[in-house]
Amino acid sequence: MSEKTPSHTSQNPLMVRNARIQTRGHKLIVEILLFALIFLISATIEMILITIPTMIGIFQTEAYQELIEAATQGNFTMEMYMDKVGEIMEQMPAWVTAASLFGTIGIIVTVLFYCAKIEKRKLSTMGLTKKKIFSEYFLGLGVGFVMFTLVLGLNFLFGGVKFIGVPFRAEIIPSLLLILLGFVIQGASEEILCRGYLCISVARYMPLWVGVVINSVAFSLLHLMNPGISPLALLNLFLFGVFMSVYMIRRGNLWGACAIHSIWNFVQGNVYGLRVSGTNPGNSILQIQQTENGSLWNGGKFGPEGGLCVTFVLIAGLLILWLFCKNQDLGQTADALPENLRPNSMPVEATE
Question: For residue 335, is it within any domain?
Fold first, then answer.
């Protein structure tokens, strides 16, 4: 065994251990470059999928019509254009938001194809196990709902938000369900890309903690162009990436992390009516407004993920995972080690 090949010990989660057995990892710089390439390909596919729906949505906004009218009358200015861009994004129909979320399926398809067909890795090494799918996903839904509700509670406590009313109407139910399904896809896409793929790929050659750090940095940088981004928002995105990585490692699969990510976004935007990573949530069940003097807590234009309340909840969540939860490898089965790596030539027992 090469000195640079990580040892296959029982201390590593089975998904990492199996990934190391199935395919040899690359040096860190190679893994980063491969990730950048895979992301660019998947982002291109996503852009192709959402371009037509987005253009149709833009044409339907009042702000766009005002721009066209100004251009027709010869009153168009670059300052007017910059002002109207923000209004256009705010006025986009709810179905366009759903379409953009559905477009992230391009990321899922690209990453799964690369890992399964090119790297020759089993999907279980990405945490996509065949067992424990529903139990882990529903547990993740509960964890995500509780975590963001705690964020909201802290915001109320520190004066970061105030309750406005209940704008819910029966006619918005179809759009809410459509957006929920979109968030299921979008949340899974980012978890598969950053945790299932990048974290475990890096951990094949490097220590697991390096994979956790690298994927969390990448996850935060993917949001660098979001409206309202700030240093605290980037820190929280990094902490969110670390939390999701540790949650995946402790549970032994990715299903719960996908659920936490999806329900966090949906509850934040379409239940409580708050901005999601700088974007307008559209229709929501409740209307809760951020206070102008509470930006340190509520995150300002980026939304709660840019505030200290999210920082507190994520740090508390990480401490709970680290101190009170053990690796369970749920849904995983140990691959047999090659003969030269088996201690005392003993067979490897499967773990359910």
Answer: yes
Range of the domain at 120: 14-345
- Kindly tell me if the per-residue pLDDT of 350 is higher than 70: no
What pLDDT does 165 receive? 94
> Does any domain span residue 20?
yes
| Per-residue pLDDT reduced to its tens digit, 136-195 | 999 999 999 999 999 999 999 999 999 999 999 999 999 999 999 999 999 999 999 999
Domain count, the chain: 1
Rounded Cα–Cα distance for residues 126 and 123 (Å): 5
Q: Report yes or no on 351 lying in a domain.
A: no
What gap in Å lies between CA 263 and CA 256, rounded to an integer? 11
Q: Determine, yes or no, domain membership for 7.
A: no
By the 8 A CB rule, do 15 and 125 touch? Answer: yes
Answering whether pTM is above 0.85, one says yes
Report in angstroms the alpha-carbon separations of 22 from 64, 227, 321: 53, 41, 28
d(CA 244, CA 253): 11
**Whole-number Cα distances in Å, 54 to 3, 103, 213:** 51, 11, 34
Percent helix, percent strand, percent coil in the chain, to nearest 5: 70, 5, 30
For residue 112, the tally of other CB atoms under 10 A from its CB is 17
